[in-house]
Amino acid sequence: MKKFLSLSLLALLGAFYADAKVTLPSVFSDNMVFQRNSEAAIWGWTDGSGKVSVTTTWTGAKYTATPDSNGKWMLRIPTPEAGGPYKVTIADSSEKITLSNVLVGEVWFCSGQSNMEMIMSGYPGQPTEGGVDEITNADPLVPIRICTITHNPSLTPLDQTKGSWKENTPEVVSTTSATAYFFAKKLHQSLRIPIGILVSSVGGTAIECWMDKSTVSGKFTGEFDLGFLEGKDMPKELSTTPCVFFNGMVAPLIPFTFKGMIWYQGETNRFRPSQYTRLQKEYVEMMRRLFDNPDAPFYFAQLAPYSYSDPDGWTLGYFREAQQKSLDLIPHSGMAATVDVGEYGTIHPKKKREVGYRLAYLALYNDYGVKGLNPVSPTLKSVEFREGKAFIKTNTDGRQIGPIDVDLSGFEIAGADKVFHPATGRIIDWSGTVMVTSPEVPEPVAVRYCFRNWGEGTVFNNYGIPVSPFRTDDWDL
After folding, report:
1. pTM for this model (two decimals)
2. pLDDT at 2 > cutoff 50
3. Is it the case that residue 46 has pLDDT exceeding 80?
4. Residue 14: what pLDDT?
5. Which of 172, 289, 305, 375 is the most buried (most CB within 10 A)?
6. What is the pLDDT of residue 454?
């Protein structure tokens, strides 16, 4: 009888181990990119016994982890300089998974709302400029790899989400974020190493949708109602619902190792500019903390001009000013100016190449040692009023701002009555001073540049980076 029980127990244990399996988050898949020169996180679950091992072909070394009581395990594995393809094998007591065609390079997290999400093939009736060329030129031998996370709002933080790494093929590029892809392409062209972009974005979403409950409740007490998170039903309107896209599309990725973040978002928050400055600061601090990446660079796109329902309104001007202010609050951050790439009739401008490239210029200059350019948008330095004119200086070397000796539009000046009138700007000398005048304002006291919802930038530095919208007043019009 004892022998029978022993044999039965062994059979049951054998069946258990035969069915046991190790599983990984979807973000660990064939074709993926690990961040180079790092201690890259890798984790998963097992329902087997004993330890889980991870072996990489770049060293042949084996690393082991002990699962917790829920079967979850995590390791940090050292990664080499850029290269590949490699294989990574993950095994428990009875099963192994092998990830193939793995690269090591630079990985960037790309998030935001519809202008980040807008794919290379565009939206219906809203094409991406140059998209068809990028799609048809896509080549899997070019080591750009793409992981796009599927829309997945949740009331609670999830462990898993959908989205796996894909090669650089026409079919994949067609449905990839255009801004993120242009960013990756420029990095690869300059660095000549594998680039991975991890894209998690949803059109129409406010920034608070991408923040965790702890941050929203702790830093913005009383500003957002989070009671719905304790219920069972998802709110019908998700675009301004806090936490839900963090829970479903960011939490499952923690603590994946990446180099930095790019961000294109803000349209849904544009009526709350002063709050947005604080929100963006806390969003970045949250991401750096949760992903254990305190120095991760953060580069974001300024909102582009658009008519909205009132092309002459000031809403966008105040919001872009709030974006500019956040630069002073967020270390290792930068803003890609977009005042020259908007479209009057659509909130989704087709010129995504300029946005992606300008974000890449910031990364190349600040993080990869590429010099010889100035990717930073010139901003207001000072203003002087005399002889019925305004004289503007920016914080850019005067020899690197233009065009000179031509009339420049986009300027407005006002007198003490606070009524703004169109004005003409002109760069008058090699110091880069811009003289602004209007026959309707004989005694100006304030200047605004491209501060309305709709208006096209006309002043640039020598590298094609537009001067950022500004105002010299503090009026709330």
Report:
1. 0.94
2. no
3. yes
4. 38
5. 305
6. 98
Q: pLDDT at residue 223 above 80?
A: yes
Three-state secondary structure readout of 187-240? HHHHHCCCEEEEEEECCCCCHHHHCCHHHHHHHCCCCCCCHHHHCCCCCCCCCC
Q: Cβ distance 127 to 350 under 8 Å? A: yes
Report how far residue 367's alpha carbon sits from residue 372's, in angstroms, rounded to the nearest whole number.
Answer: 14
Angle at 330 between CA 256 and CA 240, to 5 degrees: 70
Write down the pLDDT at residue 442.
97
Q: What is the CATH class of 19-104?
A: mainly beta
pLDDT at position 9: 37
> What tokens appear for 163 in the block?
């989205």
Query: Higher confidence at residue 332 or residue 92?
Result: 332
Res. 431 pLDDT band, cuts 50 70 90: confident
Check residue 400 and give its pLDDT: 83
Angle subtended at Cα 301 by Cα 160 and Cα 252, rounded to the nearest 5 degrees: 5
Task: Output the pLDDT for position 399.
Answer: 64
The CATH-assigned architecture of domain 105-367 is 3-Layer(aba) Sandwich (3.40)
Higher pLDDT, 7 or 154: 154
**The residue count for the chain:** 477
- Please give the pLDDT value at position 1: 42
